[in-house]
Design a protein that fits this description.
Length: about 425
Amino acid sequence: MDRATFACSTAFFHDSGIPSQGAPAFPGGHVDFIDKADSFAYSDFFRDYLIPNHPCVFSAKFTEDWAGRRDWVTRDGKPNFEHLLREFGGAVVPVANCDVQEYNSNPKEQLPFKEYVEYWQEYIRNGHRSSRGCLYLKDWHLSRAFPEQDVYSTPVYFSSDWLNEYWDAVAVDDYRFVYMGPKGSWSPFHADVFRSYSWSANICGRKKWLLYPAGQEEFLKDRHGNLPFDVTAPSLRDTRIYPRSRQSQAPLEIIQEAGEIVFVPSGWHHQVSNLEDTISINHNWVNGCNVALMWCFLQDELAAVQREIRQWKDPVDDWHLQCQLIMKSCTGIDYKEFYNFLKVISENRISILEKGLDEEASARNDSKAAISALGMLHAVFDLKRAAKVLSSLSANEDFGKLDVNSLAPAPEDLLQHLQAAIDTALL
């Protein structure tokens, strides 16, 4: 991060508090197309898209060196099933049935990868039809299952990735996925986990994206407050069911070609369809620009849980703990883990500022090397944003009702360490 971008980010977030989840509209309705990597710096992306929370599309030039685009694809641009079976035939993968609605998603099952590819090949031979329905391989943690595979490299624009940095550190999970599906497979209307950013790169095939700016989803709720499963369904125009649907702006439509990368801003609801047989790489990620939105989302999720079980507040002694447990089962994180998330992110950056990067860490290409590569000012920006959210978390009434004495270091001590590191770095 250069000084101009640091100054821009500081001015944007100065005294902004904890923001709402984005603006209710996206002026202009145009999604920028980034053509050339050599003329588009990290600071350009940070300033023009991350800070204002705007979408963009990167051309296929940004992925042309990926091994996956060479090895996973045939000469005519189709999935290379022979290669994929040779590399991953013994894997077990998560598969969703796009033809079945289960609440607001599709039911999933675990299938051997070999069986899924055989299904897919038969589906193509039958004119993209099957008695089993349209099956979509989704949310496959391929990077975690096959760390030795050199399929792709994360573009520098998405390298400030707190979400995967944290889950890599605790060795529990990650938010790096592979999607594979036939023509006609799709993902229902949704916003991404924790209201994170996402980036999605097509290894092969084409996708159609329908994106709604953060806040627009409020107009799409039905009389009971539920979001639609499919925003292309005719019922969405029925004001007896969706009374405010006509107030929403039209979605932004993106046709994503092979090799291109779509950047989805934080909190933007979207629906995605595969126009051809398609393979894509997808990451969810959080950083200093949207961590406050993640914190807002967690507060909203806890409030929703509390409303659902409020009748048990008095008879249940540990009601607040039960709310945290339910929240974690639904979202994947609770307030204490969110504190640990902020702690790990902060301590990694404090270490860089205080000790610098040694050659061994740089050679490993680990998270600290990535932090260092973005520069000292980026680490300071990250710490300032973490401190802002940590301060809000520490003052939160529900957080205070937990056993915060079990946290190490104590929140107030971590805040002091954060501020001291920031002050020293800016001397």
